[in-house]
UniProtKB/TrEMBL annotation:
Gene3D superfamilies (alphabetical): Medium-chain alcohol dehydrogenases, catalytic domain (3.90.180.10), NAD(P)-binding Rossmann-like Domain (3.40.50.720)
Region of interest (Disordered), ranges: 1-24
Keyword Secreted: no
Coiled coil: none
Domain Enoyl reductase (ER) stretches: 10-315
SMART domains the record matches: PKS_ER (SM00829)
Any one Gene Ontology molecular-function term assigned to this protein's record: oxidoreductase activity
The name this protein goes by in its record: NADPH:quinone oxidoreductase family protein
Highest taxon above the source species: Bacteria
Higher taxonomy: Bacteria, Bacillati, Actinomycetota, Actinomycetes, Kitasatosporales
Originating species: Streptomyces fragilis
Keywords: Oxidoreductase
Ranges of biased composition (kind: Basic and acidic residues): 1-20
PANTHER family reported in the protein's UniProt record: QUINONE OXIDOREDUCTASE-LIKE PROTEIN 2, SHORT-CHAIN DEHYDROGENASE/REDUCTASE
InterPro entries associated with the record: ADH-like_C, ADH-like_N, ER, GroES-like_sf, NAD(P)-bd_dom_sf, Quin_OxRdtase/zeta-crystal_CS, Zn-ADH-like_protein
Length: 325
């Protein structure tokens, strides 16, 4: 089969190499899946660089989120068992953690519904308890997890403010349904949020960026507001001033979706059922901006890691032969 291997750590475009290899052999509680579509995630780039909390042994195949096909023809969603990731024709997955692919979505959309949408669902509903009528601020609103948070926020009845970088991403955020869009490159984020909320601030802030975005969040979070820390795409991990959280009465909440797979797998299943229902209603639909063949995986991972994309970039192996995704 065709697969991408990372033999050393570094920038994705430099260290991901195409290889011809045998399909991996399933171990206990594992299943071999034909990869129908593999979504590209920011952690894929971090993993290539050896900077992610999960460090598979070298060589490994990146790709942590797929829509795959079982031997009996079922379409399923899975997080591949590393080192046999999704940027290949076949991947391994835990047979006990397979989720049925929503019928309302094609392969690429289904692959993109899993980690990003589950992350956003847990962040907004499990951690922040977002309520209808509240104001939700989403940093990087045109990105992979940000676009999911925007759609889920709107589906929950919130007013959504999206912060983006550049006019192209601003247009994407508007198309996703943001009520207010702020371009951090040309606008003062703090002033713009205060103006949009009448000085009150945002009830819930979704932050996958860290760094300056987190500092801005602390300035515009409402009384009894909640800042949910998703990740640090900026590369800067901020230090929270707890005295500031005390005097402004706001909460700082962490969200690591992967822990729910081991701590509360039934809740992961419940989340998937909720997302499937929302997809069937048309309330959410992953924004797949690009479908690329397997040969384009290294470039796709590089661009997602650099923050040069909007929505989701999905690797579709069948495109290599000109087939439909």
């Amino acid at each position: 089969m065709q697969a991408w291997h990372v033999h050393e750590n570094g920038a994705p475009r430099e260290v991901m190499r195409p290889v011809e290899t045998e399909p991996p052999e399933p171990g206990a509680h594992q299943v071999l899946l034909k990869v129908r579509a593999a979504n590209v995630n920011f952690p894929d780039g971090l993993m290539c660089r050896g900077e992610y909390q999960v460090r598979p042994p070298l060589p490994f195949t990146p790709g942590v989120e797929i829509c795959g096909e079982t031997e009996d023809g079922r379409r399923v969603l899975a997080t591949p068992v590393l080192p046999h990731g999704g940027f290949a024709e076949y991947a391994l997955a835990d047979s006990r953690a397979l989720l049925p692919a929503p019928e309302a979505l094609d392969d690429a959309e289904a692959a993109a519904l899993h980690i990003g949408y589950q992350t956003s669902w847990f962040a907004l509903h499990r951690r922040a308890a977002l309520r209808a009528g509240e104001t939700l601020l989403v940093h990087a609103a045109a990105g992979g997890v940000g676009s999911a948070a925007v759609q889920l926020g709107k589906a929950a009845g919130a007013t959504v403010i999206g912060v983006v970088g550049g006019p192209e991403k601003a247009a994407v955020a508007r198309s996703l349904g943001c009520d207010v869009v702020i371009d951090r490159r040309s606008e003062d984020v703090i002033a713009a949020v205060k103006e949009a909320t009448g000085g009150r601030g945002a009830d819930v802030i979704y932050d996958p960026v860290g760094g300056e975005a987190f500092r801005q969040s602390t300035k515009v979070v409402a009384f009894e507001g909640r800042i949910v820390v998703i990740g640090f795409a900026s590369g800067t991990i901020p230090s929270a001033a707890l005295n500031h959280a005390l005097v402004k009465n706001y909460a700082i909440l962490g969200l690591h979706w992967g822990l729910y797979n081991t701590k509360n797998p039934k809740l992961v299943q419940h989340c998937h059922e909720q997302l499937t229902e929302l997809a069937a209603k048309g309330a959410v639909r992953p924004l797949v901006s690009e479908r690329v063949p397997l040969s384009g995986a290294a470039d796709a991972v590089q661009r997602v890691w650099e923050g040069a994309t909007t929505g989701r970039v999905v690797v579709v192996p069948s495109l290599e032969n000109g087939a439909a995704a």
